[in-house]
Amino acid sequence: MQKLFYNRRRLAITGTALIVVSALMGARIERAFSDDPITEQIQKYGDAINLVQHYYVDKVDLGELNDAAIVGMLGKLDPHTVYMPPSNVEQQGEQFEGKFEGIGVTFTLIHDTITVDAPIPGGPSDQLGIRAGDKIVTIEGKSAIKLKENDVKKALRGPKGTKVTVGIDRYGEPQLIDFTITRDVVPIVSVMAHFMVDPTTGYVNVGRFAGTTYDELMEALNDMSAKGMTRLVLDLRDNPGGYLEQAVKIADEFIGGTKKIVYTQSRNTQFDDVSWSHPGDQYEKTPLVVLVDNGSASASEIVSGAFQDLDRALIVGQTTFGKGLVQRQYPMRDGSAIRLTISRYYTPSGRSIQKPYEEGKYVKNTTAMAAQSEGDEDNFSHSLDVNATDTTRPKFKTASGRTIYGGGGITPDFLVRNDTIQPITKKVWASGVLGDFVEEYVDQHVGEIKKAGDLNNYIKSFRITDAMFKDILNRAKTKDKKLDITMDQISTDKPWLAVLLRAEIGGRIYGNEARYRILLEDDRQYQKAYSVLDEASHLAAAYK
Fold it and tell me: CA-to-CA distance for 307 and 286, rounded, in angstroms?
């Protein structure tokens, strides 16, 4: 009996001890969770959204509130970390994957009417004979006038193999022409134009770094090589970037040996990486000049920065945008995504070209602005050292020991500013009458222009007359009664306007090559690039 009492007493004591230990362990676990910053903030957010759901005066859409909270959170980080709702994810993927499924045209809404800019070469519309300037006025028998851009895309795009019937209003045809188009996979072009500017010099414009850019560029380079290209102008102006691996592959084509092209560093070492060149590519000794401007960003800066650091090419134009952050896209459960900055990239010399930002917004970069505006570009051609007197920016060395500068963007070896136009000319341009004039002029004269000869003949002989300018000014004054403008007021800008109009008319009739060939005639940055090709030849000859 005494033994049984003792055992019960021991069990009671043990039980009490276990309860105390459990309570202590529970306190430790609770403290561990409360000390976890993520759990604590999630609990705080849950409390806030519960309060709103149960006690706010009006009914709320919790999904919209949640999206807004995510946007607000990411907005505190950097300018390129963003939340993408489901509707944007597919469009963003198309932009850089290099293809979509649809009828294969680029279009502009002019006076609420879908106007074909150009059929995409080889696409289903191109194969059926749809032309630039055609107006799509019906889709599946219903009026397409006044459709919004997103509605047009929804109506014309669709799975490969499906059909859509469009009614085309074509100049010179008395009735609508119905085309039944079988949708297909349509490439999104990265190489906007390529052609020979003289018997040995090629020009190529790369508009983005998408999934097919390397293949497109190689096709363009090989085509020009077959025509005698021995030196090249690579135009990356207004190229917003894209896939890092495409930039590396393209840079590798021009960089010989085993050299560092770009490297990334992150707080999380799994995202640290180094990309190297490989010897034996065809264009490693081709004299090269690269055009950049403040619209050249990200992958464009990787390519131009590597070329500059390794003394592989001359860079001409204006200081680039300054985006040195790498993003990775993470899908969410509802089809949305977060594009999160995971690392910074650096050029071979160690430059981070990321420009300053605070709380998700860019701040004024005074050093880069100074680099953008200083001096006469003609003084740069001797030393190639555009910032020799700038002591505020971090200094780096190229492969040959030349001083270059960080602090935001890639500063060109030859700084060339674009011409500016007068405010009155900007008003005429902004009014939209230039596009109206081009549209109507092409409709009325396409037959006689083509009959007069090919693209080369058009470039040599077609000119903008005073009568055309008067027509444009009358249109502008009719559209905006407050716009009292005379020929004398735009006299300074007439040469620029004439080139622009010739390029747009030629582009509508002969395609992108015509547009770019004509625009280069009055392009100071391109003319500088062309003038330093001999210097680029010396650089290529010395490159190891």
Answer: 12
What do you get for the CA distance between the two ends of the chain, in Å? 99
Cα(190)–Cα(95) distance, integer angstroms: 10
Give the three-class secondary structure for 542.
Answer: helix
**41 vs 62: CA distance, rounded Å:** 18
- Sole residue written with tokens 């950097």: 78
Beta-bridge partner residues of 205: 193, 235
Question: Which tokens in the block code for residue 106?
Answer: 């680029």
Q: Are 168 and 149 in contact (CB under 8 A)?
A: no
DSSP state of 242: B
How far apart, in whole angstroms, are the C-alpha atoms of residue 193 and residue 202? 11
321 is written with which tokens? 């945008």
Contact 539, 311 (CB under 8 A): yes
Q: Looking at the annotation, which residues are catalytic?
A: 298, 309, 323
Taking the C-alpha atoms of residue 37 and residue 26, their distance in angstroms, rounded to an integer, is: 19
> What confidence tier does 370 reach under pLDDT thresholds 50, 70, 90?
very low
- Enter the tokens of residue 240: 């917003």
Residue pLDDT, tens place only, 123-148: 788 778 887 778 899 999 999 999 98
Residue 330: strand pairing partners: 338
